[in-house]
Amino acid sequence: MRQPKILTTIKTYSWQIFVNDLLAGATVAMVALPLSLAIAIASGADPAKGIVTAIVGGFLISLFGGSRVQIGGPTGAFIVVVFGVIGQHGYDGLVLATLMAGIILLLGGYFRAGNLIIFIPEAVVNGFTIGIGIIIATSQLKDFIGLSIDNVPADFLEKIPLFWEARETFSIASLIIALVTLTLIVFLRRVKPRFPGLIVAIGISSALVASMSLPVDTLGSRFGELPSQLPCPELPDLSTSRIIELLPSAFIIAFLAAVESLLSAMVADKMIEGKHRPNAELSAQGIANIASAMFAGLPVTGAIARTATNIKAGGKTPLAGIIHAIVILLVMSLAAPLASYLAMPALAALLIITAWNMTEPHKWCEYARGKKSDVGLLLLTLVLTVVVDLTVAIGVGVSVGLALSLLHRKVEESDWSPPDR
């Protein structure tokens, strides 16, 4: 079934549910705001692109999606791919790849490809997720400790020696602000799990930078002031040569968007004891990515952390996700100049926390106790993600995983015997 979940939930809607959705949507918006900025910066894009993606993508995923509580937006899983596409093809190349990925996802929803998620080995998903977490964390070391490096390479093996060469530019002020932010985020999450601690922690750290005139980079000093309105939608260059050139990137973006959104919806189902509609979810991802590309945004997908925040804050229906997008738009319109004061080490600390959570350390022992073939597949995917390339990691991981599944499949003995002739 590809019918959006909002059409189902609207039949039993009430004022009490609306109040729950309103509070949950506003709470998630306060979490999504700094995350969207930080993810855009880590992806090598202008921070405003992250806000645009959260507004446009978040609105459409909730409007057309197949989950009651899914929240969409830019996510950490895309940082590696987006950074690579921008570096190789420019930002206009990313926009075209995102548009094509949206079309692929729409076709996937139409042909009911959402049901195929069960064939992707869990070890592969865990492996590339941990690998992405490692890459994100290392990419933030520059701002976390204030190193002066003009261009940080995308390649992990090139990045580490470059950080070592720049060690003398280390900034104690940047490190202190990053550690203060990190400590506040962890503390507020434990003491007040439903409280929007991310924005409070980054706000306090950035206020310290401004009030004490610390020699620390801010969003404004590096990128200038954020715009206060959405850009006008337009189509990217659709030349045949450009489409062929970016088709592989489009398939990777579509694959990641599909996997992450469907995994997020499955996690949400367990939390609310519900059942999402996978093909409606894929169709929504397609619509959202096409629209995000037309507004020059980033790739968009269902976000596990924000979806979980929505559920814990009391969100009941897709309207919570729509409200979350509207609140971000209002903040963008009314308070864009304030974002210029956000400290870069504080945003780096936020992404390092995000990367740590992505790796799900509480599950490491469980992974280690699993079958040797699963552990080997996880490590293979992880190493390929970090050292080689996400495209190679996914391709090799899925191929090896499916081969192992066929190899270990139990074949029942047949009781058939040849007939007497």
UniProtKB/TrEMBL annotation:
Q: Where are the transmembrane segments?
A: 21-42, 48-64, 71-87, 93-111, 123-141, 170-188, 195-214, 246-267, 287-305, 325-356, 377-407
Q: Where in the cell is it found?
A: Membrane
Q: Which UniProt keywords apply?
A: Membrane, Transmembrane, Transmembrane helix
In its UniProt entry, the species of origin is given as Kiloniella antarctica
User: Taxonomic classification, please?
Assistant: Bacteria, Pseudomonadati, Pseudomonadota, Alphaproteobacteria, Rhodospirillales
Q: Where is the SLC26A/SulP transporter domain?
A: 18-380
As for membrane topology, the entry says: Multi-pass membrane protein
Q: What is its main location?
A: membrane
Q: Which domain of life is it from?
A: Bacteria
Do you know which Pfam families this protein is assigned to? Answer: Sulfate_transp (PF00916)
Name the UniProt record assigns to this protein = SulP family inorganic anion transporter
